Amino acid sequence: MRPQLQTVAQSTQPDEEETYTWQEGWVKYNDTIYEYQEDILTFLVMGIDKNSDVVQADGQADGGQADALFLVVMNPDDKTIKIVGINRNTMTDIDVYDRDGTLLTTVTAQLAVQHGFGDGMEQSCEYQRRAVADLLYNLPIHGYAAVNMSAIPTINDSVGGVRVTVLEDMTKINENFVKDKPLHLIGEEAFWYLKYRDVDVFGSADLRLERQKQYISAFVDAARRAVKKDISIVLDLYRAVSSQMVTDLSLDEVAYLAPILSDYRFDENSFYTMQGETRMGEEFEEFYPDEKALYEMILDVFYKEVDINQ
Amino acid sequence: MTYRYNRMIKIPINRMRLFLLLIFAVAVTGCASVQDDGETSPVQEGSDSVQESAADTTIDFAALQRQNPDIFGWISIPGTEIDHPILQSEAADDFYETHNASGEADDAGAVYIELANLKSMCDFNTVLHGRTGADETGLFADLYRFADPDFFTDHKELYIYLDGNVLTYEIFAAYERENTSLIRSYDFTYLAGCEQFLDDMYHTRDMGRNLREGWEDVSPYHFLVTLTTQKEENDDRQFVVIAALINDAAGTIDRVVTE
User: Fold this and answer.
1) Is B54–A7 a contact, with Cβ atoms under 8 angstroms apart?
2) Domain extent for A267
3) Residue B132 in contact with residue B138, Cβ under 8 Å?
4) Which contacts (CB < 8 Å, 24+ apart) does range A107-111 have?
5) Coil, strand or helix: which one is B233?
6) By the 8 A CB rule, do A163 and A182 touch?
């Protein structure tokens, strides 16, 4: 017969075999305990698909889609920068708002459309930040920058252009974009290299993500070299693109973060992407993340093992 | 369209008899284990103003209700400090957020349910609230211990005492979620609301979520309790411990599930 007094009395005693006290925020996975690395700074970078200066949208769902989504992860403990590419087509919870910003409902849709349910400015960015954080297990995101794709040539040229080897045949849009050809991207070329997507090809968003991944790695490399030479280019760049960008990072904060770019380690292994499967939906492609892989990637990038013997 | 719910939980007859005997004994004797002068009853830690405990497996509801008629149940989680009366205020949903079990203004609050829930515990999901104060004290502070996978594994059961019944629940989930009202977010009176809750529960993205093996298929035909608490310094998140009814001693738990 339960409950029994004896059972109750015994089980209130502390467990003797427990050699550690469970701490808030710890996570146990495959018998290993992990903790979130509190010092990490995570920024969401959004490439917005609106080829003009950032202007406030008047009405719902036209704040522009976040075509490219990346997290820049700065870890002061091991002095590394990591970048996490997030598939824009990831099917997730999207909050639908009306013109007044009243939440109407929550639907499952592509992650990138969340930005559109705002004003195209800070509100859109906050919505997108929340959607990304929710997808990534309520991950803290410390700041954001939403950059119109139109700003790409300016950004690209500020670090003296970016060198890539063309990943796929794109001679349809530029005769220089021949597969495997080494290229020094300057100006508009960088824009098209990042933006082009053959909508007739299934999985073309994944191909583009590969190109974006390649470009960003090369860009970070070029930027590190440029910043080492002259740190003021970061501030010049901030000013130059400010009309095509929405960010909650102030010029001061950017000035504080800029030296990190050259001090911290970043290589081709520092880029993480989501594993999963792209399927054709009724109208658009849908990406279904591999939940286990996603969980493990978050552990890998944002957590560290806890040494319980300490 | 409504379906009559067939009780899924079969109670062993001998256990049932024992419980009925117990309840009978309580009814006849008025449960003498709690003295009015309180000399033998354990005194609650913190600001619990009501002197009673489930440690002796009995609760004197007549005495409790003389103290405060809003007391209708008692929750006890073996292995934790959680051993408290459950209240419901007709004045305001959150009255016991700021009043203790005696009804006196007290920041420690009391364990309570909102008006949308039935005191009979016959809802699909009865949501119990309790506070976690500073220094990790408070009526429901021990819920956070269920974040530890080992503690979660070792502590399965919780009991809810009603006047004339003892309900046994198995704790099957513990995780952190957005600090929104479950009662306002889901309509538990309809099948769709229950299904939505379960769907969200199973798909919740919390790195530290604990889910007990064998509880992957909870349905709207279960009877759940969800215990919620928050930390003051992190009030946009709430911690929930969810349990399902596995034993209904007096056989009073039933409900019609509406589609």
Assistant:
1) no
2) 34-303
3) yes
4) A110/A284, A110/A286, A110/A287, A111/A66, A111/A69, A111/A86, A111/A87, A111/A135
5) coil
6) yes
Tell me how many domains chain A contains.
1
Residues in A touching B145 (Cβ below 8 Å): 22
In a domain, A183, yes or no: yes
Tell me if B207 and A27 make a contact (CB, 8 A cut-off).
yes
What CA–CA distance (Å, rounded) separates A85 from A69? 6
- The SS3 assignment for A94 reads strand
Three-state secondary-structure class, residue B15? helix
pLDDT at residue B109 tops 80: yes
Q: How far apart are alpha carbons A267 and B131 in whole angstroms?
A: 47
Residue B92 has what pLDDT? 95
Domain of A67, CATH number, reads: 3.40.630.190
Domains and CATH numbers, chain B: 2-258 (2.40.260.10)
Torsions phi, psi of A271, nearest 5?
A: -105, 125
Residues of B in contact with A22 (CB under 8 A): 145, 147-148, 150-151
Question: End-to-end CA distance of chain A, in Å?
Answer: 43
- In this structure, the number of other CB atoms found within 10 A of the CB of residue A207 comes to 17
Question: A220-250: string of b/e by CB count within 10 Å (b at 16+)?
Answer: bbbbbebbeeeeebbeebbebbeebbbbbbe
Residue A283 lies in a domain: yes
Structural domain includes residue A13: no
Percent pLDDT > 70 in chain A is: 89
* Predicted pLDDT of residue A9: 37
Q: Residue A28 domain-assigned?
A: no
Residue A169: DSSP 8-state: -
State how far the Cα of B128 lies from the Cα of B117, in Å rounded to an integer.
9
Cβ neighbours around B225 below 10 Å, total = 24
A162-A216-A247 Cα angle (round to 5): 110
Write down the pTM of the prediction: 0.80
Interchain proximity A28–B149, CB inside 8 Å: yes
